[in-house]
Amino acid sequence: MTSRSAACSCGQLHLSIEGEPSRISMCHCLECQRRTGAVISNQARFRREQVTFGGKAMAWMRTAESGNALTFHFCPTCGSTIYWEGEGFPGYVAVAIGSFADPNFPAPMIGVWEESRHAWLSLPPDTPPKPCRSMTGSQFGASLLSRVSAGHYADRRGPSARSSSAS
Ligand SMILES: [Zn+2]
Ligand SMILES: [Zn+2]
Questions:
Q1: Closest ligand, as measured to the CA of 34
Q2: Domain residues for 49?
Q3: Strand (E) positions, the chain?
Q4: pLDDT value at position 100?
Q5: Measured torsion, CA atoms of residues 28, 138, 158, 40, in degrees rounded to the nearest 10
């Protein structure tokens, strides 16, 4: 089974994880942009029992637009947020992909909050489009079509997917 380690900048807060993630996503929401300081948040979800927690963490909670609480765990020394849990995905832990410091970590399968995406960012070109839960298939198709015809995806082989779920 694959074993991976994730850690904060100073190494004080660290996780050991067994097995593969069940979901790998990127989030373009403004909250994630503020939290990370980057223009995108990337995260992988693991079942809680796959994760061994080490070091001291502090927690900060915010309410997602869905109304679900999200609790972010960060290192009190260096401030890196390593993992978070949410009422929207009980039993799972989302881990910041950058914390693995592994350029070979699998690519995201889904992008959310596409509406606040920086124009130069997209999912890997081979990612299949995935309709979001808040849109019907035909709405998604229509919105896709209008963007494709507007040249929005002119430089890409496929559209990035979006969904209404929290990251
Ligand atoms: Zn640290
Ligand atoms: Zn986000």
A1: 2
A2: 3-109
A3: 3-7, 14-18, 23-27, 41-47, 51-54, 58-63, 69-74, 81-86, 92-96, 110-112
A4: 98
A5: 0
Q: pTM of the full predicted structure?
A: 0.76
Domain total of the chain: 1
Query: Is residue 140 situated within a structural domain?
Result: no
Tell me how far the alpha carbon of residue 130 lies from the centroid of ligand 2, in angstroms. Answer: 18
pLDDT (0 to 100) of residue 167: 58
Does residue 122 sit within a domain? no
Q: Which pLDDT does position 151 carry in this prediction?
A: 39
pLDDT per 10-residue tile (average), the chain, 167 residues = 96 98 96 95 98 98 94 98 97 98 95 92 75 40 41 39 48
CA of 12 to the centre of ligand 2 (A): 25
CATH code for position 61: 2.170.150.70
Residue closest to 121 by CA, chosen among 31, 46, 33, 21 = 33
Q: How far is the CA of 65 from the centre of ligand 1 (A)?
A: 29
Q: Is 143 within a domain?
A: no
The pLDDT score that the predictor gives to residue 125 is: 78
Give distance in angstroms: CA of 14 to centre of ligand 1. 8
